[in-house]
Design brief:
Layout (H helix, E strand, L loop, with lengths): L1 H4 L10 H10 L3 H5 L18 H15 L3 E5 L7 H14 L5 E5 L12 E5 L2 E6 L1 H4 L1
Parallel strand pairs: 1-2
Antiparallel strand pairs: 3-4
Helix pairs in contact: 2-4, 4-5
């Protein structure tokens, strides 16, 4: 898990405090504590041992560990069940703290619930800015 989040670094090179912060922000910390070797557990090629929601959160943690200023979510919840979608949406909401720009592309309207600005695109053309209430 640690090497997956701190992509490209070996265990001994990883900043443990930074890793813990990224995992907590991505809402993975509690799950990681249940793994056999906690942060040192191997999660398989492309996160094969994880659920879709957990893989998504590993991607979020990786971007946070790297210090990204902008995160792009392209249909981040399209293949998820309702419970996992809610968990991912909550993770995304807690990241939007003014220090991070999130660009979310979504067809599921519930994914956009906490967005401060929503821009509607239809038939490949910009339709303008709308509120969440306008689209539900």
């Amino acid at each position: 898990m640690a090497e997956n989040v701190a992509f490209g670094l070996k265990d001994k090179e990883i900043d443990q405090d930074k890793l813990e912060k990224a995992l907590k922000q991505a809402r993975l910390w509690d799950f990681v504590q249940t793994l056999p070797n906690t942060i040192y557990t191997k999660i398989g090629e492309r996160g094969a041992k994880l659920s879709d929601g957990q893989r998504q959160r590993v991607g979020i943690a990786r971007a946070l560990y790297a210090g990204a200023d902008v995160l792009f979510f392209d249909e981040a919840t399209s293949a998820l069940d309702t419970k996992t979608e809610e968990e991912i949406t909550e993770s995304i909401r807690t990241l939007a703290d003014g220090k991070l720009t999130l660009i979310i592309i979504a067809h599921r309207k519930t994914t956009l619930k906490y967005c401060t600005r929503i821009v509607k695109v239809a038939n490949g053309k910009l339709q303008g800015e709308v509120s969440y209430e306008d689209i539900v």
